[in-house]
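User: I need a structural model of Cobalt transport protein CbiM from Paenibacillus piri for a docking pre-check later this week. Nothing fancy, just the predicted structure tokens so I can convert them on my end. Input:
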Amino acid sequence: MKAKKGLSTFLLALGFTVYLTVNEPQSAYAMHIMEGFLPVGWAVFWWAVFIPFFVLGLRSLMRITKETPELKLMLGLAGAFTFVLSALKIPSVTGSSSHPTGTGLGAVMFGPLPMSVLGSIVLLFQALLLAHGGLTTLGANAFSMAVAGPMIGYTVYRSMIASTGRQKLSIFLAAALADLSTYVVTSIQLALAFPAASGGIAASFLKFAGIFAITQIPLAISEGLITVLIWNWLQAYSPEQLSLLQRSMKGANKG
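Assistant: Understood. Predicted structure tokens for Cobalt transport protein CbiM:
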């Protein structure tokens, strides 16, 4: 048993070392859609779209902490994982960047709604403390990373579990596609705000998405592998909490 835990810890440390070495940010100007980059109308629009999900997420978090307060530590882990991974910025397109998101783990653990709160808090701290993103563009950034990404990731996870029963593969795909879908939505946001002179929104989307894909596809694969390593670590060192979490999620899904 000790040998198994030791191997799990080694693989986790090795995974993070490789991940952080390969994906080390290269410049301080890397960020989400930056402050003031979106026209006012679009900034307001994405705030309006995001807020209902945030409210539903607060209600979901209150239910989780009230019914199973033992899971607060797991919620903190999901938030910390999102903060660490999404803070790794790699410049990609003027006014935005490529980076892992870290929201897939929380979506698998708690569902997509709690991540709308945890992810937006992460983005707020990054905007205030790290100059990554901005306050006016927080609605757009939160919708892409804290709403759309977790929803896609959770849907993929549930579908794969139901069809294959292979949990590790399901977690890998959930994390990877939560990452990629975030950048698809970001590309749509930028294309809507800045349609190309020739080809309009469609041409602009292909331009943004195509450039993002160069860095984002390897990042998504890396994030999927790291998320599986974290899950293995939880199974080895926190089996009781993980079991409680899974029972809680099954009960919530039945309800």
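Before docking, keep this in mind: The chain has one domain: 33-248.
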